[in-house]
Amino acid sequence: MLSQIKGIHHITSMAKDADENNRFFTHTLGLRRVKKTVNFDAPDVYHLYYADRTGTPGTVMTYFPFPGIARGRPGTGEVGTTVFSVLQGSLDYWQDRLTQNNVAGLKKEERFGENRLLFEGPDGDGFALAEVESDGRAPWTEDGVPEDKAIRGFHSASLRLRDGGPTEELLKFMGYEEAGQSGNIRRLTVPNGNGANVIDIETLPSANPARQGAGSVHHIAFAVENRQRQLEVQRALAENGMQVTPVIDRDYFYAIYFRTPGGVLFEVATNEPGFDRDEPVEHLGEALKLPTQHEHLRPYLETHLAPIGD
C-alpha cells in the first residue's frame, strides 16, 4: 500500500463559456482565480484555475472552457459530485447566496453525519458544500464571502461507477482506508492528508455510462509532495498493472495519468513548483500565462481568446 498520496490535488472539468465560468467561481463561490493559461493540447482553449490565495493543493478547481461544447450527460465512469468544505453553520448563508445568484439544483441532505448543500454549476456541474466541525485551511475572502462562511478547499469527490469494487481496491492500494458505508455509497479516506481527504464511491449498476461535455469532470488529480514521491507512485502503479503515462511537465506541477477500472481518469500531481513560479502571489491569475511551447502564439491568442472579467 502506498503512503505518498495526501488527498486530492485538483479537479479539472469542462465548460462552455470562459467568462461565465470565471464569474461563477470568483463572484458566486468566492474563490480566487490563480492562473489564466491555455490547454497544453489545445492552446486556443483557456485553462482556468480557481483556489485559495496561493493555489494550495487540495483547493484547486480547474476548467477547460471549450466554446460551443455540448453539455455532458451524467452517468457512470466519472466524478459525479465535487464537494467543497465549509465550517458548521454555513449552509443557510450559502443557500441564500446561491439563491440570490440564481444557482440551480439547490437541495440539502445529510451524508455520513455531515450536512450538505447540493447545487449545480453553470453547465449542470454537480457540486456540494459539506459542513465540517473544523478545517484549518485559510480561505480566500476578497470576493465578498465572510471568513467564517468561506470555502476552505475540497472536502471530497464522489465517483459514480457501475461496479465500485475494482476502483475501491485501487484506492486502497493508493493509501485510502475504509471509513463507512451508507446504502450504495462507500467512503474512503487517506490518513494524515491535506484536508481534501475523502473519496466516496457510488455504485450504480444499472445506470448508463456518462457522456463527457460541458459540466463533466475531465479528471481528478491526487497530491504527492514532490517528483521523487511521484516516481515512487508511478513505479508502484505500473507494477500493479496500471498503464501509467510518463511524467509530464504542466508548468505548475508535474503529472502522471492512468485510467481506472471504473473508467475515471486519475492523475497524480506534485505539490511543486506551485502557481507563483511565473508571477507573484499578489498578482496570480491576472495575466495570460502561456506554456513555453505556445509562447510564439501569443499575438494570435491574445486576440482570439474571449475576454474574461476580473
Strand content: 25-35%
Name the CATH class: Alpha Beta
> How does CATH name the architecture?
Roll
Return residue spans where pLDDT drops below 50 for at least 5 consecutive residues: none
Q: What spatial order of strands do you see in the largest sheet?
A: 2-3-4-1-13-16-15-14
The rounded distance between the terminal residues' Cα atoms is 44 Å
String of helices and strands:
EHEEEEHEEEEHEEEEHEEEH
CATH topology-level fold name:
2,3-Dihydroxybiphenyl 1,2-Dioxygenase, domain 1
Rounded radius of gyration (Å):
18 Å
Query: Mind telling me the CATH superfamily name?
Result: 2,3-Dihydroxybiphenyl 1,2-Dioxygenase, domain 1
Profile the largest sheet: 8 strands, mixed
The dominant shape is: globular
Overall number of structural domains: 1
* Helical amount: 10-25%
Task: Summarize model confidence as the mean pLDDT.
Answer: 97
Count the strands?
Answer: 16
* Number of discrete helical segments: 5
Structural class: alpha+beta
